[in-house]
Every structure is written in structure tokens, then in C-alpha cells.
Amino acid sequence: MFSDQSMMSSSSLAIPSGTLGFVADEQRLYIRVNLGWQAIMTGPTIPMRETNSLPFLQDFTIRNMKDAAAATGKQQVSGLLRLYALNTPLSGAEIGGVSGADYLCYKQSREAGISGTFRAVLTSRLQSVDSLVFGKDRDLAVANSQGERLLDSWSGVSREKGFWAADVPIYTFNGSNIHTDSRWSKKHFWHGASSIGIADPEAYCQAWTSNESSEVGAASSYLTGQVLDKSLYRCDTRLAVLCIETTLANTHTQR
């Protein structure tokens, strides 16, 4: 679900053709097609009843939703944007451009049963770190999959004020802890940005398509320090790729 057409349009690259999208402010249904989004014509509105004639059904549904959440080890998290890592570290060419990384964020979140829209924390000529999150949601705190706070706000990241909470781990969509898992040996993540969050064309591995050892990409440690600190790595190095939730849903169901 999208709050408006602008949000839907901005999320297009991460959403494959054939996906349905509902725009809340229009109350209209769309389908993703190759060139964008196409409106779906629907029938007349069926009005809601003012009173619930089947209260037992509501109680049954709520009770079973709670039971299902408990059985799967999920917890409810609200008021926080979520940050995940992709399930494997990637080199520059393996990222496949910003659109390729956005699609991986989408695909892996859906495979894990995680709702919401996620985009890769990577810059390009058309994209800064700040622009990844919509509007006032940039002022929300950022948490890991367990609801533990990682950052005070997303807007602070691009104002040279964003520092990691040193004792809070980041998890992949399939539950790996990239702070401790040996597959992430470098403990850095790609971003390609300057310290204020805009793209550095000399440090983003040819728009995240190159594995050339003579080229470099900007990365930061996710263990300590400033989020957009700048370390340069060869583009054939495999580092973490992070995915940030782009806007806050009313309620999150977390694994």
C-alpha cells in the first residue's frame, strides 16, 4: 500500500511487473506494468455496516492473529523504520546497479514474509542517502529486526550526525547477524556517498556495475563510528549491502 502516487512512483524500480499496489489518498488500485503503473477499474463501493453484527468473528480473528504471531516468534514493532542487510555480501558488479540492489531488497524481504517497502542504501547520480526515506519519516529512529534502535533518525545520517549504536547488531532478511557472521569478514557496507550523503562518482564502482580492481567504492564500518564515514574498497571486494524501509507502516510484523 502507498500513501500517494509519488510514493508509488518512487518505489517502482524495486517492484516487479504484475504486482498490485493500492494508493491510499485516491482509494484506487494499480498494477505494475513494464512502463510504470496502470489503474485497475473496479465496481461500485459496498458500504460498511455501522455496527458489527458478528462480534464473535472479530474476537476470533484477533485471538488467532495473536496466537499465530506467538507461534512464529514474531513481535510487533511500531514507530521505527527497519534496517536489514541482504543475505550475502556483494561485490560492485554483483550488486547489479541501484535497481538491481533495490530488487534484491524487495525479493528477500518478501521471501522472509516481511511487509513494507525497502530500498538499498546506495547512492547514484539521481539518488542521495537522504532521499531513500520519504518526508517526515526521515526523522524517525531506525531499528534492527528485533526493534532495537540503531540510529536516532535517518535525517541525521546525511547531516554528519548519524552514529551507530555500537552494541546493536544488524540482521539479514534470513536472520544472520552480520556483526558476528564470518561471511561478512570486512564488517563494512557499501554506500558510495560523501559524508553528507550525496553520491561520489569516483567512489561508487561505476554505478554499482564494476568489479574492476582498479576502481573503488565508498564504504563504512557498521560496528562503530559515523554511518557515512568513508573508507575506500576495491570494487571486487564483497561487502554488506543494507536495505532501509522507505516509509513507516502503521504496524510492523517482525520475525
UniProtKB/TrEMBL annotation:
InterPro entries in UniProt: C-type_lectin-like/link_sf, Collagenase_NC10/endostatin, CTDL_fold, XV/XVIII_trimerization_dom
Collagen type XV/XVIII trimerization domain ranges (all copies): 4-47
Domain Collagenase NC10/endostatin residue range list: 81-247
Superkingdom of the source species: Eukaryota
Name this polypeptide is given: Uncharacterized protein
